[in-house]
Amino acid sequence: DVCVLGSFMKDLVASADRRPLPGETLHGTGFAEFLGGKGVNQAVAAARMGARTAIVGTIGDDRYGEEFLELLKADGVHTDWVVRHPELGTGVGLPLVLPDGSNSIIIVSRANAAITSADVEAAAEVLTSSAVLSVQLELPVEASRAALQLASTAGVITILTPAPVGPVDSSLAAFVDILVPNEVEAAALTGLDCDDEAQVPGIARRLADEWDLRGCVITLGSRGAFVLDRAVGEGVRIPAHRVATVDTVGAGDAFCGSLAASLAAGAGLADAVRLANAAGALSTTVNGAADSAPDRLAAMALLDG
Ligand code: ADP
């Protein structure tokens, strides 16, 4: 089984020809709403990849919270450990997308920021009985640390996606088995540049040594991924699948959810990354966040194709 601790973010996306000036009201050219947040994205991805999945997090007692519970239920994700906060609203993201595809995003964490270590301890049963726990950094670090520590102490395989990019609390390292940074996060953590292919194995090795990891996986966007399994020693460079990409939002989460599902099913790290690489690629062929995660059959077909 997979357990995900993470965020719930309702995305309200506006498109416009340019950014509004201070004091200006600008007519937009389009609007879309998506259910996202790294926690939800990873949980939906893990469930679609065939894992029994539970999510731990906080939402508001509002319409967006209802929408999340419906989506998660439809995908078979257990929501018994989701806390509904009566006074705070569900987290929202407000991206503005420009014609060249670039964006500016305002995130308001709301209920996500209210999760406490006590909420996490109330979910101890699912955190310690799952095969894999996946955590990102959109929630207060105390909650992430409490979950990682509970799971790690119980022998659960723990995965950390160090996103969004920023300083990472070094006290998390002791409880993390597998670190999955993208190239921006890997660069921020080491000061080294993943654009230079020759550096990538050394960056993974350095993170694995510094964090005393079981494995380090660096996702490289349209270049694929690199996986270092310390038990095996040598790293493996896995090239990306060629797909018709329309929207890369959530690719990293589809990748991590798939990785968690495969590890929970007993796969080795390199094989788990191969399938995650297919899941990440497929997620870029669909618009949206949580709902762009592919199912297991589609990912296997791309991998075998
Ligand atoms: P994030 O979404 O966190 O920035 P990446 O951009 O590194 O993460 O994407 C995660 C994974 O998704 C990649 O390692 C790769 O497997 C897959 N992926 C992302 N973009 C593409 C793409 N354009 N073509 C094929 N696969 C992709």
Characterization of the model:
It is a single chain. With 305 residues, this protein is of the alpha/beta class. It has one domain: UDP-N-acetylmuramoyl-L-alanine:D-glutamate ligase, CATH 3.40.1190. Helices cover 35% and strands 22% of the residues. The protein has helices spanning 38-48, 63-74, 117-122, 124-129, 141-153, 183-190, 200-211, 251-264, 269-283, 296-304; strands at residues 2-5, 9-15, 30-36, 53-60, 82-85, 92-97, 103-108, 132-135, 157-160, 178-179, 215-219, 225-229, 235-238. The strands form 2 sheets. Strands 5-4-1-8-9-10-11-12-13 form a 9-stranded mixed β-sheet, with helices on both faces. A hairpin with a 5-residue loop joins strand 6 and strand 7. Helix 6 crosses helix 7 and helix 9 (269-283) packs across helix 10 (296-304). The protein binds adenosine-5'-diphosphate.
